[in-house]
Amino acid sequence: MPATDRDRLLRVARRRGALSAREASELGIHSQQLSRLVAEGRLQRINRGQYRSPDYPVTEHYSLAVTAKALPNAVICLLSALRFHEIGTQAPADVWVAIDRRARQPRLDYPRLRVMRFGGPALTAGVEEHRIEGQLVKVYSAAKTLADVFKYRNKVGLDVALEALREAWRARRFTMDELSRYATICRVHRVMGPYLELLVA
């Protein structure tokens, strides 16, 4: 393997944190070279067709960047979105993602996923884009995430939803107009109503 190809691959992996077989192909480098670098311990395979530099400094949200690279249409949601926005005390072991109801079930070796299926405005509304470790990651806004956790309170726990609502309100992470809009989209306006009244009382 020419040193220039090796250097180019490792340089890209160090800069971006992750490198795909497709990106290697776009550089004119055969995917077999990636396998050789893995065998030498110069790269680590994290998913099918995805590799990372073992020297790359991993941040708290590295798993979100890996997920977004593998699943560009997925949106980080629920407990993972709360964690990203630093709301509440949840530290989920899985990455929670929302995908279209008709999409194929995603499979990743890393990280472990909790897949939720959303449709219509519930999928498309409130999506923000954040740059994490060089990767563009879609994450629901704080207000949309709060509406989602109330909608899926049976899965995440009502206590988690209430804690997140109180903490986000104290930190002024949303306006009532924003929250009302997403509560309507998620059809939880009546559910959230009594708790919102207590907040502003």
Structure overview:
By secondary structure, the protein is an alpha+beta fold. It contains eleven helices and eight strands. It folds into two domains: 3-52; 62-200, Beta Polymerase, domain 2 (2-Layer Sandwich), CATH 3.30.460. The strands form three sheets. It has a three-stranded antiparallel sheet with strand order 1-3-2, sandwiched between helices. A three-stranded mixed sheet has the order 4-5-6. Helix 5 runs antiparallel to helix 7, helix 7 runs antiparallel to helix 9 and helix 7 (142-151) crosses helix 10 (176-185). The chain is elongated, with a radius of gyration of 20 Å. The model has no long low-confidence stretch (mean pLDDT 90).
What tags apply to this protein structure?
alpha+beta; 11 helices; 2 domains; Beta Polymerase, domain 2; 18% strand; elongated; 8 strands; 201 residues; three-stranded antiparallel sheet
Q: What is the string of helix and strand elements?
A: HEHHEEHEHEEHEEHHHHH
- Parts with pLDDT < 50 across at least 5 consecutive residues: none
What is the spatial order of strands in the main beta sheet?
A: 1-3-2
- Oligomerization category of the chains in this entry: single chain
Major sheet, described briefly? Answer: 3 strands, antiparallel
**Integer tally of domains:** 2
Task: Please sum up the structure shown.
The protein has about 200 residues and is of the alpha+beta class. It has eleven helices and eight strands. The strands form three sheets. Strands 1-3-2 form a three-stranded antiparallel sheet, sandwiched between helices. Strands 4-5-6 form a three-stranded mixed sheet. A two-stranded antiparallel ribbon has the order 7-8.
